[in-house]
Design a protein that fits this description.
mainly alpha
Length: 559
């Protein structure tokens, strides 16, 4: 009966440790998730910077698995080389080891103070970031409490003769210890939690040095499996993420093989079994692996790119490529995935504008049909993005993440509406012209083509605002929308090619131009919507115009 109670106690304390780790991760993600992702993305331009950023991100999130998801999402986007991504993972692994070393000291006395400070910040914090940091502090206090309880529960067992006999037999069986720890780390989705649990057992004498070392190696292997499984996805593997996860696993496997070979020589240098021994072994393993793997990252990257080549683009353009359901638990990665899919919608709308330009030109009768097929793609992608965003848990989102989610929704909806106007109105107008065999005057055709080109430029500005929060691009976008109003006024005054055309022909041309300008202006208004939240936050947008434009308008009125 006492043994069953002990197992229940250990399971409950391990669960408390995992829950505290979860609170730290979610608190930091809500408070700084988007900023951490931005720092990591900037740093992936070089190996040294990438390794440092991976270490810092993991130290903040207390999870190399979360960092692996972020790195994988960047690697999946064009422009990030595989070698820096692998360097970031080496840094992330060192980051987890440093966390374990810090928590392996006698810091349990800090637990009540951490929980108290966290509760005060959570209950009285005025901003969401203060509450999120309070949540992280509570989680850290719970982790320290769980580690203290684990040590206390195992203390009486240390002097059990039966346990000593079992430990003496198990100490020489490195493979079962390694596999057990790997399973523990995989199930916990965290090498930090697994190694801290191992350190607690080693600190009470429940594990000898050989068994502790084997279990530390197993925990490192098990935590490398989670990103690999996450890269597989429900719709097939994400090749870029798979290369990063596989490269990390290869480094860990090679490190484990070398560590097992060197264990008889190295282990006596670390002394007797203790919690600090397990933490030191964990840090030494990851430092040694990073040092040995560093000069070989380029070779490993090239080998992985040959082993896991990029697949050809999906045959179905309306199928989502980046909406990985496994990333929903890591909001910054899920939002980045959705952003990549929204960019695909923007590319499709731009292709519709190109097709619309051809539809108004002579001899291109198939352009309206091609553009309508593209609108079906826009509609399908929009539905998938909105469904994916709805699945992101709101309780895991910080203030910045919530704002980004709303921007994603806004841009996706605006693009879908722009595609509808293109398909239902503008392309219908071009198709009607073809059916009636009406030839546009050169000046009118040139005007419509020019307006299409201006709208394509606006769409690119909108993407810049969406991706980089470029305030100058946002201002230009709103001004371009206002410029199309002036084009509509010009069309109202009549644009007939007068000299050699009859009044009927001129009137028909002017009417078609006016209808086209009105439809293009509506599309422009939808595209420009992405600029409004940014300009409103900066106090630069009045109810009807840019704040900076009001003075110019008043000056013109006074003149």
């Amino acid at each position: 009966m006492s043994q069953a109670l002990l197992l229940v106690e250990l399971a409950g304390e391990a669960a408390l440790l995992l829950w505290g780790l979860h609170m730290v991760q979610t608190g930091v993600q809500r408070a700084f998730g988007m900023r951490l992702r931005h720092v990591l993305g900037v740093a992936l331009g070089g190996r040294v910077r990438a390794a440092c950023a991976g270490l810092l991100a993991t130290a903040a999130l207390q999870s190399s698995t979360a960092t692996a998801l972020m790195v994988g999402s960047f690697a999946a986007g064009a422009g990030v080389a595989l070698a820096p991504a692998l360097a970031a993972m080496l840094g992330a692994n060192i980051g987890t080891a440093l966390i374990v070393v810090a928590l392996s000291f006698e810091v349990a006395v800090l637990a009540p103070a951490m929980i108290l400070a966290g509760v005060i910040a959570f209950r009285s914090g005025r901003g969401s970031r203060a509450r999120d940091l309070g949540r992280a502090a509570i989680g850290l206090g719970l982790m320290l409490t769980a580690l203290h309880l684990l040590s206390a529960s195992m203390a009486p067992v240390e002097h059990s003769p039966e346990l000593l006999r079992v430990l003496d037999a198990v100490a020489r069986m490195w493979l079962p210890n390694l596999l057990l720890a790997a399973l523990l780390a995989w199930a916990a989705h965290s090498s930090v939690a697994a190694v801290l649990f191992i350190a607690s057992l080693a600190g009470t004498g429940a594990l000898g040095p050989e068994a502790a070392a084997a279990m530390v190696l197993g925990a490192n292997l098990g935590s490398a499996v989670n990103p690999l499984l996450g890269a597989m996805g429900e719709a097939g593997p994400d090749r870029a993420r798979l290369r990063v996860a596989l490269g990390n696993l290869v480094n860990r496997l090679a490190g484990v093989a070398l560590a097992l070979a060197a264990m008889p020589l190295v282990l006596p240098l670390f002394g007797t079994a203790s919690a600090l021994l397990a933490a030191q072994l964990h840090l030494a393993f990851n430092l040694a692996t990073a040092i040995l793997a560093w000069p070989l990252l380029g070779v490993l990257a090239r080998g992985l790119e040959r082993l896991v080549p990029d697949r050809p683009p999906a045959e179905d353009p309306g199928a989502a490529r980046y909406l990985d359901p496994d990333a929903l638990g890591t909001p910054p990665v899920a939002l980045a995935n959705a952003a990549r899919e929204v960019l695909r919608i923007a590319d499709t709308v731009e292709a519709m504008l190109v097709a619309s330009t051809g539809a108004f030109q002579e001899g291109d009768r198939d352009a309206p049909k091609a553009a309508r097929r593209l609108d079906d793609v826009v509609d399908r992608l929009h539905r998938q993005v909105q469904a994916y965003l709805a699945r992101i848990p709101r309780e895991a989102l910080g203030e910045d993440d919530l704002r980004r989610l709303e921007e994603l929704r806004l841009f996706a909806v605006s693009l879908e509406h722009a595609g509808d106007v293109l398909e239902r109105d503008l392309l219908a107008l071009a198709a009607k012209r073809h059916r009636r065999g009406f030839t546009l005057p050169a000046a009118v055709a040139a005007e419509i083509t020019g307006l299409h080109l201006r709208l394509q430029s606006q769409l690119r500005l909108a993407v810049a605002v969406f991706m980089r929060e470029d305030a100058e691009a946002a201002r230009r976008l709103v001004r371009e929308k206002e410029a199309l109003r002036e084009a509509e006024r010009e069309a109202l005054r009549g644009m007939a090619e007068a000299a050699d055309l009859s009044a009927a022909e001129g009137g028909a041309a002017a009417g078609l131009l006016l209808d086209a300008v009105r439809d293009l202006r509506r599309i422009s208004a939808h595209v420009a919507m992405i600029a409004h939240p940014l300009l409103e936050r900066r106090g630069e947008l009045l109810p009807s115009r840019l704040a900076g434009d009001q003075g110019r308008s008043e000056s013109l009125a006074g003149a």
